Amino acid sequence: MALHPDVSPMKSLSLWLAALSAALTPLLSPAASLQFKVTDREGQPVPDAVLEVQIPSAAVPRVPAPGQVTINQSKMKFVPRVTVVQPGTRVVFTNQDRWDHHVRGTLAGLAQMLDAVGFQFRLAGWADNKPIASSEVVFDKPGVTLLGCFLHSSMRGYVVVAETPWVAVTGADGVAVLDDLPSGAATVKLWQADEVAELAPVPVVLGPQPVVLSRQLSVVARRR
Ligand SMILES: [Cu+2]
Question: What is the whole-number distance in angstroms between the Cα of residue 51 and the centre of ligand 1?
Answer without folding.
Answer: 29
